[in-house]
Write a structure and sequence with these properties.
This protein is an alpha+beta fold and about 120 residues long. The protein has one helix spanning about 1-20, and strands at about 35, 45, 50-55, 60-65, 65-70, 75-80, 85-90, 95-100, 100-105, 110-115. Helices cover about 15% and strands about 40% of the residues. The longest helix has 20 residues, at about 1-20. The protein is elongated, with a radius of gyration of 21 Å.
């Protein structure tokens, strides 16, 4: 029984130590105008005849074989938001925000809005 108590205390101490020393992941998003050569699982979204690419919560426009970070166009629709989006209630209305962009749910889609 004494060895069982010692084992439990040891496991708790190891768990507490690893929780304290665990690294936090901080996402840094590129500034508007930044040019990148490759996107991770981009989704093509056509809005008012212009092709936009949506990858990891960042909006891009294609320029040749490269992509330029741009502002999210108001009114553009996406089916899914990235993991980590936040729910915000403003003036009694529910919005979703991610990377400084506000979305409003309409049916199955999320639409970029000005708040």
């Amino acid at each position: 029984m004494k060895s069982l108590n010692l084992l439990v205390i040891t496991i708790l101490l190891i768990g507490a130590t690893s929780a304290v020393t665990a690294q936090r992941t901080v996402k840094v998003y590129p500034r508007h105008g930044t040019v990148v050569t490759k996107l991770y699982q981009p989704r093509l979204v056509v809005h008012k005849g212009v092709n936009f690419h949506f990858s990891n919560g960042v909006w891009y426009k294609a320029r040749g074989r490269k992509y330029v970070v741009c502002a999210a166009p108001v009114g553009i629709k996406v089916r899914k938001l990235p993991v980590g989006n936040k729910v915000v209630v403003l003036s009694g209305r529910k919005y979703y925000t991610y990377n400084g962009v506000f979305y409003k749910k309409k049916g199955r889609n999320y639409i970029v809005v000005n708040v």
